[in-house]
Amino acid sequence: MSTLLEIKGLSKSYPGVKANDDISFAIQEGEIHALLGENGAGKSTLVKMIYGLVKPDGGQMVLNGAAYAPAKPFVARSSGVSMVFQHFSLFEALTVAENITLGMDDAPNRKALSEKIRSVSESYGLPLDPDRLIGDMSVGERQRVEIIRCLLQNPRLLIMDEPTSVLTPQEVEVLFGTLRKLSADGVAILYISHKLDEILALCDHATILRMGKVVDTCTPKEETATSLAEMMIGGELEIHVQTEFNPGTEVLKVQGLSLPSTDAFGTSLKDVNFSLRKGEILGIGGVAGNGQDEILAALSGEERVATDMIVLDGTGIGQAEPNARRKLGLLSAPEERLGHAAAPMMSLSQNAFLTGRIRKELAPGGVIKTRRTNRFAREIIEGFDVRTPGIHVAAKALSGGNLQKFVIGREVLQAPEVLVVNQPTWGVDAAAAASIRQALRQLAASGAAVIVISQDLDELMEMSDTFSVLSEGRLSKPQPAEGLTIEEIGLMMGGDLEGTHHVEA
Amino acid sequence: MDFSSLDPVAMIVLLIGAATPILLAAIGELVVEKSGVLNLGVEGMMIIGAVTGFIVATTTGSPMVGLLGAAVGGAVVSMLFAFLTQYLLSNQVATGLALTLFGLGLAALMGKSYNGIKPPRMDRLNVDGLTDLPVVGKLFFSHDPVIYLSLVLVFAVWWFLNRTRAGLVLRACGENHEAAHSLGYNVQLIRFGAIMFGGACAGMGGAYVSLVRVPQWTEGMTAGVGWIALAIVVFASWKPWRVVIGAYMFGGITILQLSLQALGISISGAYLSMTPYIVTIVVLVIMSADRKKASLNAPACLGKSFHASH
Amino acid sequence: MLRLEQRPQPSKTMLYMTPVMAVFATMVVGGILFASMGIDPFRAIYLLFIDPFTDSYNLSQLFVKASPLILIAMGLSIGFRAGVWNIGAEGQFIMGAISGGAVGLALWGSTGWWILPLMAISAALGGALWAMIPAVLKIKFNANEILVSLMLVYVAENFLAQMVQGVLRAPDGMGFPESRNLGRNDATSLPDVFTPLGIDAGGVVMLILLAMAFFLLQKHAMGFQIKLTGESPRAARFAGVKPGIIIAVCLGISGAAAGLAGLFELTGAAGKLTIDFPVGYGFTAIIVAFLGRLNPVGILLAGAVLAGTYIGGENAQFVLKLPAAAVTVFQGMMLFFLLGFEILINYRVKRLRRAV
Lengths: 505, 310, 356
Hints:
The complex is a heterotrimer.
Chain A: E1 3-14, E2 17-28, E3 32-36, H1 43-51, E4 58-63, E5 66-67, H2 73-78, E6 81-84, H3 96-103, H4 110-123, H5 139-151, E7 157-161, H6 169-184, E8 188-193, H7 196-202, E9 205-210, E10 213-218, H8 225-233, E11 250-259, E12 269-277, E13 281-285, H9 292-300, E14 310-312, E15 315-316, H10 322-328, E16 330-333, H11 348-356, H12 370-383, H13 400-412, E17 418-422, H14 430-445, E18 449-453, H15 457-463, E19 466-471, E20 474-475, E21 479-480, H16 486-493
Parallel strand pairs in A: 3-8, 3-9, 6-7, 7-8, 13-18, 13-19, 16-17, 17-18
Antiparallel strand pairs in A: 1-2, 1-4, 4-5, 9-10, 11-12, 11-14, 14-15, 19-20, 19-21
Chain B: H1 8-34, H2 42-60, H3 63-87, H4 92-110, H5 136-140, H6 145-163, H7 165-175, H8 177-182, H9 187-213, H10 225-235, H11 240-262, H12 269-289, H13 291-297
Chain C: E1 2-6, H1 12-36, H2 41-50, H3 56-81, H4 89-106, H5 115-141, H6 145-165, E2 192-194, E3 199-200, H7 201-219, H8 221-231, H9 233-238, H10 243-270, H11 281-291, H12 296-320, H13 325-341, H14 343-346, E4 347-351
């Protein structure tokens, strides 16, 4: 087997962050090569450079012995590099054939194309009916359309970005069959994923990224899930240093929480169970897209569930609307800062009113108390070191870190009984992140219960008293965080729901 | 009831005449909406077409040249809307309304000196042997050219949207403009073209009213037909052939009033005139209530502004 | 090569300047239009835009004409802010006039200070209920409120025609399709409050309601929810805003305002219900709402400007033989320019220099 693609010292920086730092590795012809790493490790940027969406700052690529520097995806495709994205570019009201035509640079006529679609899709075990509407197809079937669209252009390298995050176990098997056949036909596959057991089962080689650098390469067949997890996490995980953890009485109980997803690309929650005590921080880990937004929506009240699926202080609140929950002390901070947690065009003062109205009594009888609202906004800014010219500045003018401090501070200052935060330090600079974590810890220490949903394992290990992982809409049984080993975390992320960890009493 | 005073053939012919302006405007708007744009300025474009067509026809003496002039007039005035919404990202609802108000005023201004003038007559089809056939002759072979043109246009639109690549790309823009853009298509330019086509069609629809149906020029003579055309597009679930059905149905309801009078049934004219509008509302509700069906037929990006952020 | 670049913060200057720029641009382009028609552009522009504000007689007329526009626009703007598009204000205007007028006609012959307020309440209810039709259809069936409210305008017009030919027809009116003249009957005619400025009772009510609208939007939680719904629907949901309530409130308020305006027109300027009663205020009010940037103070000013063009137009028609339609063209032009300049609020125009 000869080398198909060689990456030499590829680098890319964005303002404030070095996304890829001197990355080097090679992919052989017909090889299934895994690209492994946590979110933010630099995988997306790397493949975007290979596919021509982003221009590298330094380094070079060699494809089939010749210099390779695609300026656009079109060039990448004509050189034989194709990519199946995590988020599809499909048109729901159009047929399979029409979708494929639109995405092809040189499409044959209708009849010929339909023929080709049928034969190619069948020969690779992903049969497609060219005349079906995308809107009628499941997510797994839609992915087939994306894959076939790539295959019809005869790629030598197929890049797949988190392909199994939207597939059922059966569909995963079918996909693997296809990929193995492609590999046997000499097509190389660059496979981006977190799912350790899949990589073990499928891939010939793996390159592991962490913080923009290549930290390891290996042959999965010679590894175990544990060793892979260790390489991915870096083995430098701060083992949790526990300060006083004296949990109080139970304040929140979630039992049998199931919520079908309304969005085609969303994740349905299935039978989520956990219990939260006063003063406890529950950390929920897991890669994005496994139900994080849905859990937050169920807890905030944006989505309603059966009354007793969520019980707060003994009262079933599954059907309660957001402000009723705020009144009872259940607050939340969603992941999306602009457009969800805060209204981008509105001032900080108005955004303070947005959620603070109930608990801070900012509009008794309906009339807005402007001075009180402004005071609340100022308290947030001063208490949480939000860098801003004033409270009348629009939310979207703030930097990510400052806005996040504001959003978290807004909820913390309302003295919640339970606070749920989704990705509290995503896209936030280190200093702001540290102060946010500190604020959450203090909140718990004062007796509130906190749920932190995050993809950052370091952060979760630093803060959590109890730890659990969200995987495909299911929550693993929460374990005490103290003494949790990386091996156990890795297993939980791979889908082990029961957990084997015990704390010595 | 005296049915002998009813002439069904004559009624159908009248019906087709009443329906044709709606049909022309609606089929144009269908293309616009398929590309993802909601243009509420149909009424404005129609009346501009009516006056432009009238002026050109009386000046050149040819009704067909007048029709062409109307198409040009409608397309030109639609460019205001296209430029504002596609390149200046203005609100589509407000801009469409502005187009209607502006169009109504401008048309009145342009048509000032043309009140009461009779335009050149448009000849009806007259084929030896065919036109003289009883019933069939009147129903199929004795219409003016515009009626035949309108049906050809519907076919052409259907063929364009469903059988050509350009039509596919246009539909893609209406379905998911982000995806279309990421696939390399110039969404704004495509929509611009669609809007101009809609303007041309609406213009011709208006000219039909001023040159054939009435035929005369009066201020505001389109009387809300442009709005009905908008509703017809929804009624037709954005499918070209259904537009014909919808337009003819509406032509029928308008003619119904006359036939009921002829039958000696006295239902007040005002209540009857309401029916087309009430029926439109009912139809709208039925089409929108089934969210799954509605969402599958309405272009997903209808009304949303697109800004390429690159 | 020009390019649009997003501004970090919306430009406050542009927020206030765009309506002014729109008016000026209209004057310039309008002037050119006049010149091309052989009319003295400076004279025409003066008559249309400046004269109405200089003469004391004109000023009183200004208020009379601006009042209904401002009242309706105020109601509409609340809905527009939330993304609820009530285009059928003309229909609600008519139905309000019919409801209020019917009460007045039913009580014909009686006197009492309570008659007019009762008519007003009836008118507001009539307009509000008419607007609740698109509201309910939108909430329950997701039907587009633009088309429904618009269709109802034509239904209302026909209903009016039916009423003045039948039930509401003046019994001693020689068979003409019109009602009794409510404007000439003391009990049902709108009293003047301050004649020199043309302020009548309707004008006073309008000012009170305008102040209330200002209060609602600036100081009340419901006003905040309305603004939030229009700006950021997802954040609104997060904040616990119930969309159905917003839709109902916005359409109800704008319908009531339009209905009231209809009654004031009936008991004031028009006097009686006829087929020609609707004069298009419901549509012009939309322009007023946008020109006034959906803001009560702005609407007050924009109403004055548009009323000014009506008065100026009438004068110009008389003096310069300017066709009446020219005014509508101007109003449409103003809206176009405003919509065009609006982009400057959130975007900067940058000239791209060619790469060396």
